[in-house]
Amino acid sequence: VGQRWNITNLGAILFATDLDRFDASLSRKAVRLVVYDGRNRAAKVSHRLDGAKGYACGFEGLVGYINDIVPHNEHIGRALREVRPVFPELAVRELVANALIHQDMTITGAGPQIEIFEDRMEITNPGRPLIQPDRMIDLPPRSRNEALASLMRRMRFCEEQGSGLDKVVAEVELYQLPPPWFRGDDNSMQVILYAPRSFANMTQEERIRACYQHAVLKFLTGGERMRNATLCERFGIDSRNASQASGVIKHALEAGLIKPADPEHPRAGYVPIWA
User: Known PANTHER family for this protein (predicted)?
Assistant: First the structure.
């Protein structure tokens, strides 16, 4: 009652209506959103949002705001025309939740940041990744903030089990987008989501990464194997041009990311190199 109360740091970071009323170790953990009118940080800033609410209070509003301001494309389904954000809503939701949960709270002066460019979205959180980036899709997450992660799971802001990154990759494949890029350094973890781009306009590195991620998803689905036909479907390649998918598989093999499921039977398909 009155001034006779206290709140834990966990309670504040989740439920505060104004994080600026707390000390810098908490207030700097508010989410920052910047939208640029171009492809780099030299472009004009069209939207800027310095979040003030705790994660539980502000999460749904933040995700909704992002989905409202990103560009939208018209998708023609079997019966209806739908207008959808260029970045899949489920992917955005999972990645924002992951950035909040897996950040390093001991790094002062830095918090989760979302930057939206004309051709991509970059979601960054402080703290080096605890799992090798190319294994984040299949390995169980290791969280620095288990109490925060547990509460956000119970409030259904994120996956009950796993990191949810398999869902992110599955959504990207469904929309036939360039593959997300998971990258980390000693101080931060970043995920980049890309806007729609055709197979012809993807770089070789992106094609190889997409091939590896596709093989991982297949393997996680009951040990299924990636095949030339499934990769064609992932990229939207016509079956008459299947040699294009074969070329990507060849490069992924050379990069040491995938391997034949059965070396004695070349048509048996492919699995991730660690399988």
Answer: GLPR-RELATED TRANSCRIPTIONAL REPRESSOR, SCHLAFEN ALBA-2 DOMAIN-CONTAINING PROTEIN
Burial zone of 234 (CB within 10 Å; 0-12 exposed, 13-18 middle, 19+ buried): buried
Please report whether residue 180 resides in a domain. Answer: yes
The answer to whether residues 266 and 183 belong to one domain is no
Instruction: Give the strand pairing for 32-36 and 113-116.
Output: parallel
Report in angstroms the alpha-carbon separations of 3 from 6, 26, 154. Answer: 8, 20, 30
Cβ atoms 24, 17 nearer than 8 A: no
Q: How confident is the model at residue 1 (pLDDT cuts 50, 70, 90)?
A: very low
Quote the CA–CA distance of 62 and 74 in Å, as a whole number: 23
Asked if pLDDT for residue 76 goes beyond 90, the answer is: no
CATH code: domain of residue 240? 1.10.10
The total of structural domains in the chain comes to 2
Q: Which residue segment(s) compose the domain that 91 sits in?
A: 9-194
Task: Indicate the pTM of the whole model.
Answer: 0.91
* Better-scored residue on pLDDT, 5 or 41: 41
Show the tokens assigned to 245: 């998918």
